[in-house]
């Protein structure tokens, strides 16, 4: 009898966990969705729309200020952040250019978190997280709200770098906040080139993880999402970076993957202890690691090399950057993207460059299958996303391209939205959510 009761209890626990995992799998809960994977299948998206006629535009909602954070979605709630200048100084310069000087703006700002209904575009609530003059200047292509929020359905976390980390309930009530002081996000070779903070938080098993690679006192830290209590904090010998961390698994062990220049690698999720480390690569690291097939894929650019690296999930110790070796399945020392996070989808690895060139690799072997320019845009900072065999890539001028997924390049559609696109689109059931400079669009076959 006792054995039967235990079996029933185990079955109940397994069913509950499986149900929760199934729900989580369908949510776009952090930068680039489910653990930065960048895809959501069975979403029933449309591939064409017309902003002029309103075809397949379910709604359009104005978002004030300037923010490059991407939308995140849990069920019918969309979360997005922005920074509103009191004097309206939200100048933005897109394109590929070499200027490193920041925007000279000392106006007061409001850092805000919005919750928007997915089906109607109505604003459910908005909260001001902080008011004041920014501690850090921003790059002409940047904003003061670059970090994408993260949510577990009950809470939503918004990070604004020097302006703090905030946790709200899904109904908009502040639960806790942290002030880390000034987080100096600048080019390490020219410290006056302040470009603003951009590493987004992630939420895993009710723990908030943040990666803060800055000029002074870089660290990786974990906080209890319910209370804001610090669980652990590990100092990092690292130069400024703009990378978002990710989760991977080494057997039964949960790990945190971090990109970086002096210290890309893996940390233990429970303790924060370093598991492995590798130095070298692009010296302005921005892309997020992506995970799949017992592999962590890294890329970065700027400087002498721009690597793409496929690292085994059981990596240990100090590793040398190479094209292959112990724990390195395959690697390429040139070809990594400066801005874009890669897309691992159905066995292929897609790398989208700043100039719009999309390169497709066999994810297992690293063989290059094609490298083609997507559209006629001048610059692309949004990372690619995918659903049901279609990849969506946005350029800075407001064009969104639909590309057929697979080993041969085929451009399917070209769609135009009114406004510059700097952030990565989000995907939910029946909806493609795209943020332009001034608006959030709900693109769907369903009309609100």
Could you name the key traits of this structure?
448 residues; Methylamine Dehydrogenase, Chain H; five-stranded mixed beta sheet; globular; disordered N terminus
Structural commentary:
The protein is mainly beta and 448 residues long. It has one domain (2-443): YVTN repeat-like/Quinoprotein amine dehydrogenase (Methylamine Dehydrogenase, Chain H, 7 Propeller). 5% of the residues lie in helices and 40% in strands. It contains one helix and 35 strands. It has one helix spanning 2-25; strands at 57-62, 72-74, 77-85, 109-117, 123-132, 150-151, 155-159, 165-169, 174-178, 186-187, 190-194, 202-204, 207-212, 218-224, 230-236, 246-250, 253-258, 264-268, 274-278, 290-292, 295-299, 308-312, 317-319, 328-332, 343-345, 348-352, 357-362, 368-373, 385-387, 390-394, 399-404, 411-416, 426-428, 431-435, 439-443. The strands form nine sheets. Strands 16-17-18-19-23 form a five-stranded mixed β-sheet, with no helix packed on it. Strands 1-35-34-33 form a four-stranded antiparallel β-sheet, with no helix packed on it. A four-stranded antiparallel β-sheet has the order 2-3-4-5, with no helix packed on it. β8 (165-169) and β9 (174-178) form a beta hairpin. It is globular. It starts with a helix and ends in a 5-residue tail after the last strand.
């Amino acid at each position: 009898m006792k054995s039967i009761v235990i079996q029933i209890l185990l079955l109940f626990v397994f069913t509950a966990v499986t149900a929760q995992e199934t729900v989580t799998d369908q949510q776009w809960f952090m930068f680039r969705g489910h653990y930065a994977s960048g895809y959501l299948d069975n979403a029933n998206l449309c591939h064409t729309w017309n902003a002029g006629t309103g075809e397949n535009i379910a709604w359009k909602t104005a978002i004030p200020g300037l923010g490059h954070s991407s939308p995140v979605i849990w069920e019918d709630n969309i979360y997005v952040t922005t920074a509103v200048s009191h004097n309206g100084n939200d100048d933005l310069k897109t394109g590929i250019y070499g200027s490193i000087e920041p925007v000279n703006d000392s106006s007061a700002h409001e850092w805000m978190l919005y919750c928007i209904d997915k089906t109607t575009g109505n604003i459910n609530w908005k909260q001001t997280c902080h008011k004041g003059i920014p501690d850090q200047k921003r790059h002409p292509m940047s904003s003061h709200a670059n970090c994408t929020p993260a949510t577990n359905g009950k809470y939503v976390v918004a990070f604004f770098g020097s302006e703090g980390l905030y946790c709200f309930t899904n109904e908009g009530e502040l639960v806790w906040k942290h002030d880390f002081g000034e987080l100096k996000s600048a080019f390490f070779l020219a410290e006056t080139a302040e470009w603003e903070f951009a590493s987004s938080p992630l939420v895993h098993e009710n723990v908030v993880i943040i990666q803060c690679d800055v000029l002074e006192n870089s660290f990786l830290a974990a906080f209890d999402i319910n209370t804001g209590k610090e669980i652990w904090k590990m100092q990092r010998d690292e130069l400024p970076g703009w990378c978002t961390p990710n989760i991977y698994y080494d057997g039964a062990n949960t790990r945190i993957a971090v990109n970086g220049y002096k210290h890309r690698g893996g940390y233990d999720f429970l303790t924060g202890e370093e598991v492995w480390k590798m130095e070298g690569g692009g010296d302005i690291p921005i892309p997020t690691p992506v995970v799949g097939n017992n592999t962590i894929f890294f890329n970065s650019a700027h400087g002498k090399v721009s690597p793409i690296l496929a690292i085994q999930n059981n990596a240990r110790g100090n590793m040398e950057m190479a094209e292959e070796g112990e724990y390195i399945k395959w690697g390429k020392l040139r070809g990594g993207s400066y801005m874009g996070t890669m897309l691992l989808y159905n066995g292929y690895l897609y790398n989208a460059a700043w100039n719009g060139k999309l390169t497709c690799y066999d994810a297992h072997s690293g063989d290059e299958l094609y490298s083609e320019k997507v559209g006629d845009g001048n610059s692309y900072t949004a990372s690619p996303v995918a659903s049901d065999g279609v990849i969506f890539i946005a350029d800075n001028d407001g064009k969104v391209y639909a590309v057929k997924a697979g080993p041969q390049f085929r451009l399917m559609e070209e769609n135009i939205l009114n406004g510059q696109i700097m952030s990565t689109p989000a995907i939910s059931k029946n909806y493609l959510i795209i943020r332009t400079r001034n608006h959030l669009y709900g693109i769907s076959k369903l009309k609100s």
